[in-house]
Write a structure and sequence with these properties.
Layout: E1 3-8, E2 17-23, E3 26-31, H1 37-47, E4 50-51, E5 54-60, E6 66-71, E7 75-76, H2 80-88, E8 91-93, E9 101-103, E10 113-115
Parallel strand pairs: 5-8
Antiparallel strand pairs: 1-2, 2-3, 4-7, 5-6, 6-10, 9-10
Length: about 120
């Protein structure tokens, strides 16, 4: 039996209100999309929802005690809480350079965690 799901496409700034008719992960119809990316977004949201994640990790001997970090690619949504728990336990040594890999292949996802800014060591 087909199901109707409402979602907002966030692929572009338009933010189209989509009505997706689907049977499980099989999309039958997407209404409300003003571009073809809406259908691709709906399929991804139903089968493998992902989000970019920004957070911070602790830094030893830095001019600040935290450095902002982000995922290099969109991260699987069901694993975000586990990611946050893991990031809370990480502490790196200053200095930190922008776009430096802080954690490689976090949680075996193939996605790296990168530093969002430079953070010099304490003098």
């Amino acid at each position: 039996m087909p199901t109707e799901t409402d979602m907002i496409c966030v692929t572009c700034p338009r933010g189209c209100a989509l009505k997706v008719i689907h049977e499980g992960n099989n999309i039958l119809e997407v209404n409300g999309a003003t571009c073809k990316r809406g259908k691709d977004y709906a399929l991804c949201e139903l089968t493998d929802p992902r989000r970019m994640v920004a957070s911070s990790v602790k830094v030893k001997n830095g001019i600040h005690s935290l450095v902002p970090v982000y995922t290099a690619q969109a991260f699987p949504k069901p694993l975000i809480r586990k990611l946050a728990d893991h990031l809370r336990k990480i502490e790196i040594e200053a200095p930190v350079k922008i776009n430096q890999i802080v954690v490689e292949n976090i949680l075996n996802t193939g996605i790296d965690i990168l530093a969002s800014r430079d953070l010099p060591a304490r003098q």
